[in-house]
Model the fold of this input.
Amino acid sequence: MLPYERRIKKEGFELIRKVFKRSYNSLNFSLKVAYSTPKKSCFAVVVPSLVSKKATVRNKLRRRVKALILRHIDNFKDNCANIVYIRKNAADVSSRDTEKELLDLFYKSGIFKK
Done:
């Protein structure tokens, strides 16, 4: 589970979603980044009901992405808010492929330290 100070709060979610600076896309994920918002980088993971009608599948995907973020939390640059949107086909992808695709997306967006 992500630490509380690294999560995007409800009141800040709409604001960040409206004023995001960049959007990056991959096959199964979409990443929206807003720069210079908090002191540390913070995250939100959105899994729409179009991915799966079953909440257990959506929660599994959400936990998988959050665990990946938590494993690499020290490698993210500060001062950015990130929203990860999971697309429909992500339910069929293995966890290893999910990790590779997300890390590539983080590198491409420039929020990941090298």
Q: What stands out?
A: The first helix runs from residue 10 to 18.
